[in-house]
Amino acid sequence: MDLSGGESQDRQAERNALPPFPRIWIGYLLGVATLIVEMIAVALHPELAKGPLIIPPLYLFLANFTSLVYWLVCVYEYHVLLAQATAGTYSTRPLRAAWFHLIPIYNLYWVFKWPRELARFVNSRLDAPLMRPDRTGLAVFVAFAVFLALDRGVGMILLFRTASPAGQLPFS
After folding, report:
1. What's the longest Cα–Cα distance across the chain?
2. Which of 9, 12, 49, 157 is the most buried (most CB within 10 A)?
3. CA torsion through residues 151, 133, 16, 87, sign
4. How many structural domains does the chain have?
5. Is residue 153 part of a domain?
6. Does some domain include residue 171?
7. CA count, 13 A, side-chain hemisphere, 49
């Protein structure tokens, strides 16, 4: 009896299996860690709260940088998932989706555009619309604006909240 055919079918199924969703809970933890680091930095250096922050302490920079890098990894992973689920018909390439976040000025438009296009794509594949494209784009844009302009920790938590599937608790 030849079992090699069954073995290759198992391997084929493994290759066709979709990758898991990004671990959003890690983003929440990074956002909370960034908030804690911000509080520590202000407690140790009260002058940080008074004026513009030109050169942050290293630990504050690392918390912000790590959070942003993980956000880009999650954006990449979502687009990999969409590319594999649609056999390559989803138009935005994963690396492009992540790198466009790093282009100054254009990134403000990009964080509105890609979630909106993603929502339109998802809705086009369903019988009834599941996502509202403009609200989806606006939610990610507002969260990114909070991240850039107001508070990195709160902004990161908001970004990962927008990336959480609807109705799902952050740690489920």
Report:
1. 77
2. 157
3. negative
4. 1
5. yes
6. no
7. 9
Look up residue 24 and give its two tokens: 């959003």
Instruction: In whole angstroms, give the CA distance from residue 107 to residue 129.
Output: 27
pLDDT in tens, 113-164: 888 888 888 788 778 877 788 888 888 899 999 988 888 899 999 988 887 7
13 occurs within a structural domain: no
Amino acid, single-letter form, for residue 83: A
Tokens of 70: 């993980």
Q: How far apart are CA 120 and CA 136, in angstroms?
A: 10
**Dist. CA 134–CA 119, nearest whole Å:** 9
The predicted model scores a pTM of 0.78
Residue 84 covered by a domain:
yes
Host domain of residue 32? 22-163
